[in-house]
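Hey, can you fold this one?
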Amino acid sequence: MRWLTKTSIALLAPTSFASAEPFGEVTVGVPVSSIAEAETWYLNFLGAETKIMRPFPGVVEFKVSPDT
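Sure. Predicted structure:
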């Protein structure tokens, strides 16, 4: 058990020294049975001022944060 603990700590240690680049955006995919109903629901949930993007058929994206 002691070996496992030391190994786990050793594996975690290098991540604390690495610097990560900040991300600009995140995309989350949610499968739905009806894209039209989902679009209406998310638009009501997120608000009418939410930007809607349709990059290709069958995909709807909502921009929920301002450009920084």
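The radius of gyration is 20 Å. Let me know if you want another pass with a different chain boundary.
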